[in-house]
User: Fold these one by one.
Assistant:
Number 1:
Amino acid sequence: MEQAYTRTAVLLHWLSALAIFCAFPLGVYMHELQLSPRKLQLYSYHKWIGITVLLLLAIRLLWRLRHRPPPLLPGMPRWQELAAQGMHYLLYLLLLAVPLTGWLMSSAMGFPVVWLGVIPLPDLVGKDKLLGDTFKEIHETLNYTLLVLVLIHIAAAIKHHLIECDDTLRRMLPFLKPRLRAGAKTNVSRQSASR
C-alpha cells in the first residue's frame, strides 16, 4: 500500500487547516466588537470561511472514498493507533459540526448566509431568538473543543517528528524528504566505505 498521502489529500488538509486558523481568531475578535458595519463585514467573512470548511470537508470525504489513506507507520503502540484514528474521526466530526452550528445560529438569528457575498444559502431553521442563542452556545463550545483537538493533533505530529523521529509529519509536509531507514543507512555507509 502507498506510504504517502496523495497531493490532493495533502492540499485539502492544509487548506482546511488554513481556514480553521483564520476562522477561529476572527470569530474571537469580532465577537467583542461593538455593532458596526465593520463587525457585520467580519461576520460575513467568518461565515464564508465556515462554508468553505464544509465544502472542503465534503471534497475530502469524497476523495477518501476513492483514495485510501496510507497505513500508520509500523511499530506504533496499539493505544497510539487507536488514539490517532479516534482523533481523526473527532476532527472530521467537528469540521462538520462547527460550521453547521454557525449556519444554524445565523439562520435562527435571522441573518442570511451569502457565501462569498454572491451565493445566498437557504436558512436551515426559521427565525427563533432562543434557538439562535442555544446554537450560539453550542457553536462556541464546539469551536473551543476543536481548538483543543487541533493543538493536541499538532503536538502529536511534533512529538512524532522530534522524539519518535519517524515520517508521520513528513508525509503531510511534502517538502521534507523521508528519513533514511536503519537498513538504508547501513547500505549507504557500506557503499561509501567501498569507494
Number 2:
Amino acid sequence: MKKLKFTPLLLLVLVFTSCTSVRVVSDYDREANFSEYKTFAFYKPGIDKAEISDLDKKRILRAINSELAAKGMAKGEPADLLVSIFTKERERVDVYNNNFGWGWGWNPWWYGGGWGNTVSRSTEGSLYIDLIDAKKNELIWQGIGTARLITSGNIDKKEERIREIVSEIMKTYPPGADQN
C-alpha cells in the first residue's frame, strides 16, 4: 500500500521537473574569431519568417538583446553580427504506464487489473538563434533550445519562460567561454 501512496508524488515530481528543463544544443564555425564581434543588429527578413505572434517575437528579441548586452555586446550599426530566429512547435504526448502487474488472475497475454495509463499532453517548442557574420553573410553560430511552452493566458509566466529558454541557449555563446 505504501507503494501506491508514493507513486502519485513521484509522477508529480517527474512532470514538474520535465516542465522546467530546456534542452540546448549549439554549433559554430571553428574558424570564426568570436572576440572580434562587438556589435549586433536583428536580421528582420529572418525574424519576419518566424511563425509566432509578433508579441512573442518581441519577448524573444528583448531577451536576446539582454543576454548579448550582458556579454558586453552593443546593439547598433554597423553591426558585426546579425541575429535571426526561427521557431518550431509540436504537440508532445507522454504516456505513463501505471499498470504494476497486480490484479484478478493470470493469463499468458494479460495480467488483469492495474491502474491503467496516464496521458499528458503539452506543447513543445524549439527556438533557433542564428548569429550571422554581417561582413561575410555567413552563419557562424547557432543555438537551439527545446522546451515545453506556457500556453495559458498567464503573460508573466510566458515572459519568464521565454527569458529562461533564451538564457539557457545563450549560455553556450561564445563557444569556449566559461559556462556556469
